[in-house]
Design a protein that fits this description.
Layout: H1 14-23, H2 28-38, H3 40-53
Helix pairs in contact: 1-2, 2-3
C-alpha cells in the first residue's frame, strides 16, 4: 500500500517536529498538530507566534 505523498501531505517527521520544538516554545507534538491543521510551511510561523506571545 502506498503512503500519502505530495503537496497535501502536511505531516511532519520526528526530526522536523524536533527542530521546530527546539527553536520555539512548542512541544514536538504541538508542532505536528500545527502542521496537520495549517500545513508544514505555516506550522513554524505559528510556533514562532507562540514564542512571541509568551
Amino acid at each position: 500500500m502506498a503512503t500519502k505523498q505530495g503537496k497535501n501531505d502536511n505531516r511532519l517527521s520526528d526530526k522536523e517536529a524536533m527542530h521546530i520544538a527546539e527553536t520555539t516554545d512548542v512541544s514536538p507534538g504541538q508542532a505536528k498538530e500545527l502542521a496537520e491543521k495549517r500545513g508544514k510551511d505555516e506550522a513554524e510561523k505559528e510556533a514562532r507566534n507562540f514564542k512571541a506571545e509568551g
